[in-house]
Design brief:
- The structure holds 2 protein chains of 2 kinds.
- By secondary structure, chain A is mainly β.
- Chain A has strands at 3-7, 10-14, 19-26, 31-38, 44-50, 56-58, 64-68, 73-78, 87-95, 101-103, 107-112.
- In chain A, strands 2, 4, 5, 9, 10 and 11 form a 6-stranded mixed beta sheet that branches. A 5-stranded antiparallel beta sheet of chain A has the order 1-3-8-7-6, with no helix packed on it.
- In chain B, strand 5 and strand 6 form a beta hairpin.
- The radius of gyration of chain B is 13 Å and the shape is globular.
- The chains are: A mainly beta, B mainly beta.
- At the A-B interface, strand 4 and strand 5 of A face strand 4, strand 5 and strand 10 of B.
Amino acid sequence: AQSVTQLGSHVSVSEGALVLLRCNYSSSVPPYLFWYVQYPNQGLQLLLKYTTGATLVKGINGFEAEFKKSETSFHLTKPSAHMSDAAEYFCAVSASGTYKYIFGTGTRLKVLA
Amino acid sequence: EAQVTQNPRYLITVTGKKLTVTCSQNMNHEYMSWYRQDPGLGLRQIYYSMNVEVTDKGDVPEGYKVSRKEKRNFPLILESPSPNQTSLYFCASSQSSGVNYGYTFGSGTRLTVV
């Protein structure tokens, strides 16, 4: 069975500061991991994904995430926040051979001028 | 343009009045799914479909029905809506039944049941 926990339902950063959104997962088989972004009044958009291979994954809009098996984590980072990054971010986990796809409860990112 | 199209975007209905939310994708994806999004609960899967005529329950299927007669369409049916089904609904599709490719989401349907 898979599960995912996002630490912090709300995160505020100053414009230009580092963005760090935390995601920890639980999976009995090798996981596939995803980050999605949701802007107001829109659907979710895939930011990046880890399936196999390189553990540091780069996505759109300057975001990246690192798969750390020993820590069961897949935290999302961006070196310098921009006002346009204000949105809700969801971590998700799936597993090979299953149809289950579990979302976290989301982290709302606020960027302060 | 590759997309998932949901209709309507907004819907207000009364308790017990049957309704259908349509979902269509133009990417020839095998896998489609319905989610509801509620504050503090994230997205919860209602039903999913691995291909035409193949559907299965997700985590919160009670009060909902689906069908998959064509590959591109996956409507969500509420036969007797109740106020606890007031929510934001998303349809999503993926090119792989193992969903390791990630989802393409529709823009959402905000449903209010009074």
